[in-house]
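Input sequence (242 aa), recorded before submission:
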Amino acid sequence: MTPRGGAVASINQETPASRPESPGRYGLLLALLVGSYLLSSFVSARWVTARNVALYATAVVLALRSAEVPQLVSRLIFLVVIAGSAVVIGLAAGTTINVGVLNLWVALVLLAGVVVIVHRVLSFGTVTLSSIFGAVSAYLLLGLMFASVYAAIDHLGAGHFFANGQSANGKTLQYFSFTTLTTLGYGDFTAAGNGGRSVAMLEALGGQVFLATLVARLVSAFRGRPELSSGPPQQRSGKTRR
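Predicted structure, token format:
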């Protein structure tokens, strides 16, 4: 016969699968991305580029800390991201080609963040606030990634990125990227070359698939914390051990 104290302890013990995932890190990541985007939109200075690279590297590090990846792999990716970011920041002070290489590196770093976050979100046993924070963070990273790709095309390609010679800077490229990602299509900025147009079409298709398959499913399935709605195990079974 099981002692009363042991029975109560075993009933009240929570299994790892039933514990809700903490939304803290993904909440911090989302706040970091929103702040980075707003700062890029309202501040014009040379140090903004270096600051963006540092913030994006920090975002990937936060995504790694929230993901269940082997510690050795996590440390290796961390070292590659930090070392590579330091190198490309140094190159940014050089020619236009160096700036294009910097933007390609930023795009790769952000793509790694998207992959890590989406993999972690899909591995959640239940849909929680952390899942939604992670999905929205991945969506923002996707828009910032394509903005970096457009910047690389602008610096590495011939001619202007936008039609009619409109200025292509960090603000306008991010604006163009997110209006494309969300398929708003205001039409005030249009890619001039075939390369830019092709990437814009890929971004529009990817944004729609992302919203329809991941974000929409998570939001519709979100039920809050499961233990709050299910009640204690004694109430669910309808019996109480005496």
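Checked by second reader. The first helix runs from residue 4 to 12.
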